[in-house]
Structure formats: structure tokens, C-alpha cells
Design goal:
Largest sheet: none
Strand content: under 5%
Helix content: 55-70%
Order of helices and strands: HHHHHHHHHHH
Number of strands: 0
Oligomer: single chain
CATH architecture: Orthogonal Bundle
CATH class: Mainly Alpha
Distance between the termini: 48 Å
Low-confidence stretches: none
CATH topology: Hypothetical protein af1432
CATH superfamily: Hypothetical protein af1432
Mean pLDDT: 93
């Protein structure tokens, strides 16, 4: 018996934004799916708009698994995680241990297929990492927009900071997403359907 996928299914129990008052909770399973399809989009934009070959499926896969270790570690709030280099370094060590723990739940013959997904230092994926990081932040911006639309002002400073962080990444693919796709999140379902 392998517990790997049963553990992954527990992503739905790990809520994000623990320090914030939420009108609707968001778990890491929901966030990982959204991050995966945004990372896929950024990779497609890189290839189609900027002519840079990019493996969109690999980007989606890596993004889908990017927060799996939080099943074990929990979601550490950003202000704490990035408070100091020492905390960030220690948290990376904890994440690596959690990844090893998850991988150990797989049957030995399947482990080699999953190890590269959890290897954040894998050279072959280096070009995709900035896209996944941007997708992660874009997903967080979307959460902030959704909360702001309900009248929750708690997320306004976070949204401003995240928008700055994405701009500071200087990723043209992320800028395209911000300009072309992000404004639609401000609209209602009626607005979306009226544009058909």
C-alpha cells in the first residue's frame, strides 16, 4: 500500500492566507490548480508571443506540485517565511525534508518519475522556475481581487505588494497576463457571458 496520493488529497485541508480575514477560504489544492494553468499560460505566451521554446506541460506539472510539501509543513505566511535569510534558509531545509518524506511514500519503481518534480535545483527546469513563481504570485493577486470585490479591504496592501513583485520580476510573459487577462477578474459572470 502506498500513501502518496492519499497524502496529496490532503492538500484540500491546508488553508492559505492564515493571517488574513477571508470572506472565502482558499486551500492549497485550489491554489495549485490555478497556479498550474497560469504557469501553462505563461509558457504558451513565452513561446507564441516571444518565440522562446518552452515546455508548457512541464510548467503546469511543476506548478501543480509546487506547494505539495505544505501538506506536511503547513502554509507559512509570507511575512514570516521571508522575514529573514535565516528563516528562509531553515524553511527551505524543512521543505526539502517534507519532499523527501512524500517521495518515500511512493513505491520504489515509481519514485524516479516523481523525484525531478520535487527537485527545485534541477537544471533542466531552471528556465521554467520564474514562470512558476510568477504564476504563484498571479494566483495570489487573483485571490486579492476576489476578496476586494466582496468589500474585504484586508487584502488591499497584499495586492499592491504582489503587483509590484510581479512587475519587479520583469517577465514579459507575466506582464502580458497582467494586461490581457487579469482585468477580467474584476468583472462579474454576467460581464463574462455578455462578451460571448
Amino acid at each position: 500500500m502506498s500513501n502518496f496520493f492519499a497524502m496529496l488529497s490532503r492538500m484540500k485541508y491546508i488553508n492559505r492566507w492564515g493571517l488574513m480575514r477571508n470572506t472565502q477560504s482558499e486551500n492549497i489544492a485550489e491554489h495549485s490548480l490555478e497556479t498550474a494553468y497560469i504557469a501553462h499560460a505563461l509558457a504558451v505566451i513565452r513561446e507564441k508571443r516571444f518565440g522562446v521554446p518552452c515546455d508548457a506541460e512541464r510548467a503546469a506539472l511543476l506548478a501543480m506540485f509546487h506547494d505539495c510539501t505544505e501538506i506536511i509543513t503547513g502554509d507559512m505566511p509570507t511575512p514570516i517565511k521571508y522575514h529573514s535569510p535565516e528563516i528562509r534558509r531553515a524553511y527551505r531545509e524543512v521543505e526539502a525534508l517534507a519532499a523527501g518524506n512524500l517521495l518515500s511514500l511512493l513505491p520504489e519503481d515509481l519514485r524516479p518519475a516523481y523525484e525531478p518534480i520535487f527537485d527545485e535545483e534541477r537544471e533542466e527546469d531552471a528556465a521554467l522556475r520564474p514562470l512558476i513563481k510568477a504564476a504563484d504570485k498571479l494566483s495570489a493577486i487573483i485571490k486579492c481581487i476576489e476578496e476586494r470585490k466582496t468589500g474585504n479591504r484586508e487584502f488591499m496592501a497584499a495586492e499592491e505588494g504582489l503587483r509590484r513583485a510581479v512587475a519587479d520580476m520583469e517577465l514579459p510573459e507575466a506582464q502580458v497576463f497582467m494586461e490581457e487577462f487579469l482585468p477580467a477578474y474584476e468583472q462579474s459572470i454576467d460581464d463574462h457571458l455578455a462578451k460571448r
